[in-house]
Amino acid sequence: MRVEDARLFIEQKVLDPALSSPDLPDSAKATIRNTRSWLPRFRRIGDLIAYMDRFKGTGETDVYRELKAADLLTFEDIHDDFMDVFGKFASERTRLDDFVVGERYTGSELVIFAEVYDNRSGGILLIGRSGNPQAVLVKATLSGGKYPNAWISEPERLRYYLKSRKEVFSEAYVENAAIIKNPEIPVYVFYRTDDRESSFTFSGQYRNETVHKEPDGSKWFELVRSEAIAPRNRVEEGELRRDFLKKVAVAKRGSRQDRLSRLKNASKRPAKVITSSTAYLRNPDVVAEVLFRSNGTCEGCGSKAPFKRNADGSPYLEVHHMKHLSEGGEDIVENAIAVCPNCHRREHFGPRNWH
Ligand SMILES: [Zn+2]
Ligand SMILES: [Zn+2]
Predict the structure, then answer these.
(1) Which protein residues have their CB within 5 A of the ion that is ligand 2?
(2) Domain 284-349 maps to which CATH number in 3.30.310, 3.40.1800, 3.30.870, 2.40.10?
(3) CATH assignment of 96-232, given 3.40.190.80, 3.40.50.150, 2.30.280.20, 3.30.70.270?
(4) Does the predicted model carry a pTM greater than 0.85?
(5) 154-189 pLDDT, tens per residue?
(6) pLDDT tens string 282-337
(7) How far is the CA of 279 from the centre of ligand 1 (A)?
(8) Cis peptide, bond prior to residue 284, ω within 30 of zero
(9) What is the dihedral of CA 27, 29, 30, 35, to 10 degrees?
């Protein structure tokens, strides 16, 4: 209901008086009518507020002057009153993760989300600041459109043409560059089977794999659905560590000669992977209390903490759970001890003192 209230507020104070005024020129009325046609397309009040905010400090446009000359209210005039009533809902915005795979969205909804407010704005919409977009939305028309966009395999791979002007598919155009210069940027693909459909189906998140160039000079992105990439790239951290330790064991067992010859040809720059991990949200009071109890002395070997922390000058000791949290140990003072780094490492990688 609230987004309707906000729309009515704007219509009643600015748009309707303007449209029925005999003093306002037709050109200004055309602009007002265009604005009026956009208002009902807003689904969330925060999106509408973002739209209204554009009129703040845009300077004196023709419409602004003409409204003033006809003694009518402008957006600027109502802005403060509008925000008094609706400003508290400014955070109710459409977000990237609101889009649901398989659902349909109108072109207007997508340009509102991209804050472009123009249905002729082209197929590639940048989300976030234009110099540093956080995502890209593409509207793909698969037949009857300007370009022969097509599934290479549905829904994993899409041939999607770069933005062009007068047959030039420049990789430097802002929209194309946003995808090419940010290989990790998520590309949200919305498609319609042909240009007579008024809405687009959301197909999911993609990444650009390569830019292909055709003999006629046209260029297209090969967009690959990220879900197809993710499982290959994302490794669980513990698994990564265990796997690495196994490989070290194998490397130790092999002959030194083989190892030295492998080292000669090895890549000097390690590849990177994205990892995921699970962590315990430990109780800070347990840590603070156990450190207090230790009074700067290792509760394992009885020696003094080896150094003081840069952060606060306190003695450096580590809080260890005697029965590990991963073994079902409790995060309580009674199950925790403050130990020096040597005792702590020994406990994890050498003979254990506590169980
Ligand atoms: Zn110790
Ligand atoms: Zn530990």
Answers:
(1) 320
(2) 3.40.1800
(3) 2.30.280.20
(4) no
(5) 999 999 999 999 999 999 999 999 999 998 899 999
(6) 999 999 999 999 999 999 999 999 999 999 999 999 999 999 998 899 999 999 99
(7) 25
(8) no
(9) 140
